[in-house]
Design brief:
- By secondary structure, the chain is α/β, with parallel strands linked by helices.
- The protein has eleven helices and nine strands.
- The strands form two sheets. A seven-stranded mixed beta sheet has the order 4-3-2-5-6-9-7, sandwiched between helices. It has a two-stranded antiparallel sheet with strand order 1-8.
Length: 254
């Protein structure tokens, strides 16, 4: 028996064995893997068997201690104990993963995804979300689900759906379905800095019902919109990734 999930940490532990196998099989054998939130280890144990090296980030003291004890006996495993939003940058730069895997905490999946999307990995990412968040990542321009995260994940990656799981696949069962997303590198050189893109979409999607001209009032004028080839009267969800790159580039010049 593993310790009970903490609601404050957004924990829902995966217990569906077939789902575990599909997620693990999506990562090439011998990869350097960073796992976010291993918890009791449904993914961690088979990932460790598959990995060349595995690092885990765990905030929960109970599980961090358990994995550290395991790391003391297995040189391929390393443990970072703390908040993933605070440790992620150092973990990626220090450990150098080719793949990132995680059943992401529901309560920080938005800001965590924005942080993850900034890293250009050689391999990719296999990440689990609430289904409604996953739909935002997969969405193309024009719909209500399309937003800032839809744009940001496409800076380095092409998102696709690996599988969708019912609440019963987890303990405790969440109130919603969950979806596993794969982010695979598209290999194209980004035309702008990620931080600039993030700043552009944060401003541009701040008021979804307003036009982009209103959201960027005082920053981009009519001449600028004409030069960018963007209709200033459209709403932010109508603009594709390339349009947001052009906006980000223009903002850097302002």
């Amino acid at each position: 028996m593993h310790p009970s999930a903490k609601k404050s940490l957004g924990q829902h532990f995966l217990q569906d064995r077939s789902a575990v196998m599909r997620i693990v099989a999506a990562v090439p054998a011998g990869a350097r893997i960073l796992e976010i939130g291993p918890g009791p280890g449904a993914l961690t144990e088979p990932l460790l068997e598959r990995a060349g090296a595995l690092a885990v980030i765990e905030r929960d003291d109970r599980f961090a201690a358990r994995w550290q004890a395991r790391a003391d006996e297995d040189a391929r495993l390393s443990v970072l104990h703390g908040d993933v939003l605070e440790l992620l940058d150092a973990a990626v730069r220090g450990f150098g993963p080719t793949w990132i895997v995680g059943n992401l905490p529901y309560n920080i999946s938005g800001p965590l995804t924005a942080a993850l999307a900034s890293f250009r990995l050689d391999g990719g990412m296999v990440l689990m979300y609430q289904r409604e968040v996953a739909e935002r990542l997969l969405a193309g321009p024009g719909g209500k689900t399309y937003g800032g995260l839809s744009v940001l994940v496409r800076h380095h990656y092409t998102p696709s759906r690996l599988l969708t799981l019912p609440p019963g696949a987890f303990s405790p069962p969440p109130k919603v379905h969950s979806t596993v997303i794969m982010l695979m590198p598209h290999g194209r050189e980004p035309a702008c800095d990620y931080t600039a893109l993030q700043r552009a979409v944060r401003t541009g999607f701040a008021h979804r019902r307003k036009t982009v001209a209103n959201n960027f009032r005082g920053v981009l004028d009519e001449t600028a919109w004409e030069r960018l080839g963007i209709d200033p009267g459209c709403r932010p969800e109508r603009l594709d990734y390339d349009a947001w790159v052009r906006i980000a580039t223009a903002l850097e010049r302002c």
